[in-house]
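User: I'm curious whether this sequence folds into something compact or stays loose and floppy. Could you predict its structure so I can see for myself?
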Amino acid sequence: MDLDTLLTRARLLPVSVVSDADKSLPTMDHGIRRVSGTGTVAGRAVTVHSDGDLLSVLEGLEFAQAGDVLVVDASTTPVVAVAGGLFATEAHRRGLSAIVVDGLVRDLDTLKALGFTVYARGSCPRSGTALVPPRTQVPIRCGGVNIRPGALVLGDDDGVLVTSVERLTAAVATAEAINASEEAVLAMLADGGSLFSAMNFRTHRENVLNGTPSRLGFIV
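Assistant: Here's the prediction. I'll summarize afterward.
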């Protein structure tokens, strides 16, 4: 499967079902939250290490291609914003999927009006300097996850997941099946049905109590 097809399929899925398809895939800690944008985003990581300085972020932004996710480790200087409205607008113009910052951003009104996906730990009006030699396309740690350039990054309102082409390829069909089952259950619930009639909860509970191998799942 080519990368474009894989990412297109991933963008149609909640990140939670990709995680359910392979629970060993790392997810960024819950402090990394979406501050703007909607839907599922997916793309290759362009990595940036920023000690609160903007030059690395600018160099990463200039290097990034359409569909990429700019991933910034700014955790060592968490008191200044390293991205904001201008950077996000340029990223949007270039066709990037998202910006993910382990640190702070600013210009939230602009970001929300733009509709471009940005993740961060919070916001601050004060920006960083632009004096430190850039460090881009290097291994970084963002949201507690080690990320190398070219890793695949998926995100939605629940958070951010990191994977590889090989692991996402192995998980995507299972994730699509899980998503189809969950949508069928949601439709049944909307029609007044019970969650318990759509699951093997009682059988699974008894198996767990009896020490019998079992797995909780849908029966629709």
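Summary: The CA atoms of residues 208 and 214 lie 7 Å apart. The chain has a mean pLDDT of 96.
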